[in-house]
Amino acid sequence: MSRKKTAKGKSSNSGPTAKGKDSGKSGKGTPGTEALSNGVVHPSRPSLSNSGEFYDLAFKVMLVGDSGVGKTCLLVRFKDGAFLAGSFISTVGIDFRNKVLSIDGVKVKLQIWDTAGQERFRSVTHAYYRDAHALLLLYDVTNKTSFDNIQAWLTEIHEYAQQDVVLMLLGNKADSTHQRVVRREEGEKLAKEFGVPFMETSAKSGLNVDLAFTAAAKELKHRSLKELSEPKFQLQEYVNKEMTKATSCCGS
Ligand SMILES: Nc1nc2c(ncn2[C@@H]2O[C@H](COP(=O)(O)OP(=O)(O)OP(=O)(O)O)[C@@H](O)[C@H]2O)c(=O)[nH]1
Ligand SMILES: [Mg+2]
């Protein structure tokens, strides 16, 4: 995936995704309209993604958070199973990648939007919030400022995103034991305060990366298929059960 992208404008579709490209840049990745506004394409008639994979449901997931917290690396880890080590290339504008997951026998396509954390791209990012079905809000456990800024991000999300957006808080770089300045408990406390599911992740080691996306997809699928006969899907409970805890030796 190119990490140098320039924003070209606002996404024009308000519904979930169907038949998008596997990756693209802003303003261009506006897929077709087969999907209904709640994310259901049609379970009995699977659609075909451009990568040749069939899917039943499609949703947009957006990665947000300060520059350098690891949004692009998290996406690359999830999509390709690799870690982008080396020099940091800050995302310009917005970019996306698709991935189809199998959730309880249902094929769920996630169109994952990787936003630029830098302040100067904020107005571009704002334009995409309203189309997002889920938001993964990241901070960096080795960067206190990125943690302190979470409240401001939540205010922004409240202002621009859909009211019922699925939101998760992720403390990334949990592998960086020695550089850690934000304890897991602090992340948990903040998340609890705002009623948001929380987990620590590492794009480097892969810790909880699949889980973060799968949990969001499960929640979206549950809501979309209105599985009312089943007990309500409890996102935080599911995460707690599945989560691998990072070993954090050094608190702040
Ligand atoms: N140790 C460690 N380093 C990470 C991890 N995730 C990302 N990094 C490093 O952090 C730096 C920033 O990562 P990016 O993914 O480019 O950050 P970003 O949030 O996309 O930044 P912007 O595009 O500017 O918003 C890079 O040097 C990565 O190698 C992680 O889980 N662990
Ligand atoms: Mg980036």
From TrEMBL:
Please write the reaction equations for the catalytic activity of this protein: GTP + H2O = GDP + phosphate + H(+)
PROSITE patterns referenced in this protein's UniProt entry, alphabetically:
RAB, RAS, RHO
Renumbered residue ranges of the record's region Disordered: 1-47
Does the keyword section mention Cell membrane? Answer: no
Lipid bilayer topology: Lipid-anchor
Q: State a GO cellular component annotated for this protein.
A: membrane
One Pfam family of this chain: Ras
Family listed: Belongs to the small GTPase superfamily. Rab family.
Name used for this protein in its record:
small monomeric GTPase
| Source organism per UniProt | Anguilla anguilla (European freshwater eel)
